C-alpha cells in the first residue's frame, strides 16, 4: 500500500546571507546570497617563488578553484604578489587571489600598497593581529586597507590560534556561573564571539558588512558542526567552511566530507576549502577535486559528468571495468576545460560503466549513456545504452576506445545541439 503522501526528496536547505564580491578585473566571484557554494584552495609554494606560485595557482584554478589563497608573511612575499598576478594575467588566469596574513599583516598591507591593491581579498585571523593595546590598532590598519582598496575580507578564527585574552575572560565569566559550562562549550563561545566581535569592529571602522566573510575553523568533525550551527543562527554574514588540519589521505577526505556535507545539507556555508595534507608526490589540486565532488554529490553544483560504476565482486574478476571506469573518468575531466564553454550543460551528464549483468543493464538505462561489461563467465559482449535505450553491442579488444568515441560523439550531438538552439 502507498502512503497517503509521497516520500519527500532530500534536498540541501538554503539560507539567505549577505553577499560579498571578490573581484579581479572583470572577474567577479560572488560569495553568499543566492550565489552557488564556491570552492577555494591555497598554495603551498613559497610565495617569493613567483613562477612556481603562479604555476600552482593556474593548476588550482583550472582544476576548479574559484579563489586561491597565498601566504603573505614577509616583505619579500608582499613584493612578489603583484608579479604573481602579472604572470597569471599573461596566462589568461583571472582567478582572484587572497592574501593570508598573520602577525604582521597590518605592516605589509600598509607598507606595500601594490600588494594590497593586487589582492582581491584579505584573510585576517583575530587571534594573532596583536596583543593588548596593539591589537585594536593593528586590526584597524588592516580594515582601513580593505576599505581604501574596496576589498572583501575573511575574518578567520582558528582554535589553534584563538585570542587567549578573550578565552581567558570567558573562562573567568564561566567560573562565576551558578552551573559552569564544560571547557568545550566555552571554547565554542570564544570562537564565535571572536568572529562576531571582530566583524562588528570592522563595520564600525567603515567596512561594508556585505564584504565580510566569517569562519571558525576547528579540526574535529562534531566540533565544526556544533560551532557553525550556532554561528549561522547568530549572524547573516557569508560563511567559509573548512575542517582545519584535516589530515592526509582517507582521514582528511572522510573528515572533510562528513563535516562539510552535514552543514551544507542544512544550508550552512557559502564557500568551502578541503584542507588536505598532500601525500608525497600528490598534486595540490586534489583538494579542489574533493571539494567539487562533495558539492556535486549533494547536488548543489555540477562540475564534471558523473560516472556510476559498480564496486566489483566475485562476478567481476576481470579488471576490465575498473580500467574502463578510470579511463572514462580521466577522459571526462581532461575534456571539461574545452567542453564547458562549447557544450553548456555537459557537466550534468551521467555515465555508467558497469561490470556484469546483475545491475549493469538497469544502471546503464538510468544514465544518459552507459555500458554493461561482461562479468565472469558471461558472453563477451558489452551492450551500450543511450538515453535509456540499447543502441549497440561492443565486442573485441577495442571496447574502451570505441566507447570513448561513442561518449564524445554523444556529447557533441546532444550538448552541441543545445548550444546551437540557445544561440
From TrEMBL:
Pathway: Isoprenoid biosynthesis; isopentenyl diphosphate biosynthesis via DXP pathway; isopentenyl diphosphate from 1-deoxy-D-xylulose 5-phosphate: step 5/6. The keyword Disulfide bond does not apply. Residues 307-408 form the IspG C-terminal domain. Its EC number is 1.17.7.3. Transmembrane segments: none annotated. It catalyses: (2E)-4-hydroxy-3-methylbut-2-enyl diphosphate + oxidized [flavodoxin] + H2O + 2 H(+) = 2-C-methyl-D-erythritol 2,4-cyclic diphosphate + reduced [flavodoxin]. Keywords: 4Fe-4S, Iron, Iron-sulfur, Isoprene biosynthesis, Metal-binding, Oxidoreductase. The keyword Oxidoreductase applies. GO terms for molecular function: 4 iron, 4 sulfur cluster binding; 4-hydroxy-3-methylbut-2-en-1-yl diphosphate synthase activity (ferredoxin); 4-hydroxy-3-methylbut-2-enyl-diphosphate synthase activity (flavodoxin); iron ion binding. Binds 1 [4Fe-4S] cluster. It comes from the Bacteria. Pfam families: GcpE, GcpE_C. PANTHER family: 4-HYDROXY-3-METHYLBUT-2-EN-1-YL DIPHOSPHATE SYNTHASE (PTHR30454), 4-HYDROXY-3-METHYLBUT-2-EN-1-YL DIPHOSPHATE SYNTHASE (FERREDOXIN), CHLOROPLASTIC (PTHR30454:SF0). Belongs to the IspG family. This is 4-hydroxy-3-methylbut-2-en-1-yl diphosphate synthase (flavodoxin).
Amino acid at each position: 500500500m502507498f502512503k497517503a503522501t509521497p516520500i519527500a526528496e532530500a534536498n540541501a536547505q538554503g539560507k539567505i546571507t549577505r553577499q560579498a564580491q571578490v573581484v579581479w578585473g572583470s572577474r567577479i566571484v560572488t560569495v553568499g546570497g543566492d550565489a552557488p557554494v564556491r570552492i577555494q584552495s591555497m598554495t603551498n609554494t613559497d610565495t617569493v617563488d613567483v613562477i612556481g606560485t603562479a604555476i600552482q595557482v593556474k593548476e588550482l584554478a583550472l582544476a576548479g578553484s574559484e579563489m586561491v589563497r597565498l601566504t603573505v608573511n614577509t616583505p619579500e612575499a608582499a613584493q612578489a604578489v603583484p608579479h604573481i598576478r602579472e604572470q597569471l594575467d599573461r596566462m589568461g588566469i583571472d582567478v582572484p587571489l587572497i592574501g593570508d596574513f598573520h602577525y604582521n599583516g597590518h605592516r605589509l598591507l600598509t607598507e606595500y600598497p601594490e600588494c594590497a591593491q593586487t589582492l582581491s581579498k584579505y584573510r585576517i585571523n583575530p587571534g594573532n593581529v596583536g596583543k593588548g593595546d596593539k591589537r585594536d590598532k593593528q586590526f584597524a590598519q588592516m580594515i582601513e586597507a580593505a576599505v581604501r582598496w574596496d576589498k572583501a575580507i575573511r575574518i578567520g578564527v582558528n582554535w589553534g590560534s584563538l585570542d587567549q585574552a578573550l578565552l581567558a575572560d570567558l573562562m573567568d565569566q564561566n567560573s562565576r556561573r551558578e552551573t559552569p559550562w564544560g571547557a568545550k562549550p566555552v571554547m565554542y563561545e570564544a570562537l564565535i564571539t571572536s568572529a562576531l566581535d571582530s566583524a562588528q569592529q570592522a563595520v564600525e571602522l567603515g567596512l561594508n558588512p556585505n564584504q565580510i566573510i566569517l569562519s571558525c575553523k576547528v579540526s574535529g568533525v562534531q566540533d565544526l558542526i556544533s560551532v557553525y550551527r550556532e554561528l549561522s543562527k547568530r549572524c547573516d554574514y557569508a560563511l567559509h567552511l573548512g575542517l582545519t588540519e584535516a589530515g592526509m589521505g582517507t582521514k582528511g577526505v572522510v573528515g572533510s566530507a562528513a563535516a562539510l556535507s552535514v552543514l551544507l545539507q542544512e544550508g550552512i556555508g557559502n564557500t568551502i576549502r578541503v584542507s588536505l595534507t598532500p601525500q608525497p608526490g600528490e598534486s595540490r589540486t586534489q583538494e579542489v577535486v574533493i571539494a567539487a565532488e562533495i558539492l556535486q554529490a549533494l547536488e548543489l553544483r555540477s562540475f564534471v559528468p558523473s560516472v556510476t560504476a559498480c564496486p566489483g565482486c566475485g562476478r567481476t574478476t576481470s579488471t576490465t571495468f575498473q580500467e574502463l571506469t578510470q579511463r572514462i573518468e580521466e577522459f571526462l575531466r581532461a575534456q571539461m576545460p574545452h567542453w564547458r564553454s562549447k557544450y553548456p550543460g555537459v557537466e550534468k551528464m551521467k555515465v555508467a560503466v558497469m561490470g556484469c549483468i546483475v545491475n549493469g543493464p538497469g544502471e546503464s538505462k538510468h544514465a544518459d549513456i552507459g555500458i554493461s561489461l561482461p562479468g565472469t563467465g558471461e558472453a563477451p559482449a558489452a551492450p551500450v545504452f543511450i538515453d535509456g535505450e540499447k543502441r549497440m553491442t561492443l565486442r573485441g579488444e577495442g571496447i574502451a576506445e570505441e566507447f570513448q568515441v561513442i561518449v564524445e560523439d554523444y556529447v557533441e550531438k546532444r550538448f552541441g545541439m543545445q548550444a546551437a538552439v540557445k544561440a
